[in-house]
Amino acid sequence: RYLRTLRENEQREGDKRPIIYLDETYIHPSYGVSKCWQSDEVSGVYKSNRAGQRYIIVHAGGRSGFVEDGLLIFKSHSKSGDYHDDMNHTNFMQWLEKQLIP
């Protein structure tokens, strides 16, 4: 059904609906970018040994870029280690209805 809807949207003439994707992730403030371009063995982001607060990041975007005012960043309050406990149904719906859609 999803692929059929995408195909039907692409076949519309002049009245195509924008396709918006959304996702969430997290980061610790102690993470940092290493100088990976100087090494063939090290790439990406390294994790510090320091424990710290985790931040949840949520955004939405599509072919035209990110949705204006769609960025949400907040401190995690979960102790479980799974950031999905923070971005639960309640927080998602609040972001969707009060920040992303209006």
UniProtKB/TrEMBL annotation:
Source superkingdom: Eukaryota
Any one Gene Ontology MF annotation carried by this entry is: nucleic acid binding
Task: Please give the InterPro entries that the UniProt record associates with this protein.
Answer: RNaseH_sf (IPR036397)
- The entry's protein name is Tc1-like transposase DDE domain-containing protein
Q: Could you tell me which species this protein originates from?
A: Photinus pyralis (Common eastern firefly)
